[in-house]
Amino acid sequence: MTLRRWERPTPAAEIEVATDAELRQIRQMMRDYQAELGVDLCFQDFETELEQLPGPYARPDGALLYASRAVHPLIEGHEIVGIAAFKPIGPGVCELKRFYVRPDCRQLGIASLLLDAALNRAVKSGYREARLDTLRRLGPALTFYERRGFLPCEAYVPNPESDVVYMSRQIGIFASEPFGKYLDWAGRISELPESLSNPATQGLWGYLAGHFEHGRNYRESEVNAVLDSLSLDRDPARLRRELVDRGCLNRTPDGKQYWRD
Question: For the whole model, what pTM was predicted?
Answer without folding.
Answer: 0.87
